[in-house]
Amino acid sequence: MKKLGLLAAVACAISFSACNNNTSTMDKNHDGDTTAGERLDHSIESAEDHAAHMKADADKAAADAEANLKKAQADLDAAVKSGDKQAEEAARKAVADAETAWEKTKQAARDAAEAVERGVDNAIDATKEAGQRTGDAIENATDRTADKAKELSNEAERKAKNVKEALEN
C-alpha cells in the first residue's frame, strides 16, 4: 500500500513539474520572454526539487520503520527476560511485522529513487534531442537565408549590369 502511494506521489510530482508553465519563475533574465532553454531549466529544477522531497520522505519512512523494528526487538527481549510466553509470542509477531514493513519501505524507496532517476535521465535525453533538433533547424534556416541572400545579391548584380549596359547604349 505504501509502495503504491509512493509511486502515485512520484507520478504526481513528475506531472506537476511537466505541466508547470509559470513564466514568472522561468524567465531568468527578466526580459518578459521565456525561452525554450529557460523552460527546460525550470523543468529540470522542478524535477530535482520534487526528487529531493521524495527522497526525504522515503528516508523518513525508512527511518520510522527501522525505529519500529528496534522497538519491537526491545519488546521481544523484555518479553523473553520476563518469561511470559504469550508476550514473547506477540513480540515475535510484532518483530516479524516490523521487519516486513522495514524491508517493504526500503524497497519502495529504492524503486522510487530508480523511477525518479529514469525520469530525470529521460528528460535529459529528450532535452538533448530537442536541442539538437533546434540546432539543426537553425542551421537549416541559416543556410536557406544565406542561399536567398546570395540569390538576391546575384539578381541585384545582374540588374546593375543591365542598367550599366542600358546607360552605355
List keywords for this structure.
mainly alpha, 4 helices, rod-shaped
**Overall pLDDT:** 77
* Beta-strand share of residues: under 5%
How many strand units?
0
The shape is: rod-shaped
Terminal CA distance: 95 Å
Alpha-beta content class: mainly alpha
**Rg over alpha carbons:** 32 Å
* Sequence of secondary-structure elements: HHHH
Can you tell me about this structure?
This protein is an all-alpha fold. Helix content is 91%, strand content 0%. The chain is built from four helices and no strands.
Describe, in short, the structure shown:
With 169 residues, this protein is mainly alpha-helical. Helix content is 91%, strand content 0%. α1 runs parallel beside α4 and α3 (36-82) runs antiparallel to α4 (85-168).
Topology diagram in text:
Elements: H1 2-19, H2 23-26, H3 36-82, H4 85-168
Helix pairs in contact: 1-3, 1-4, 3-4
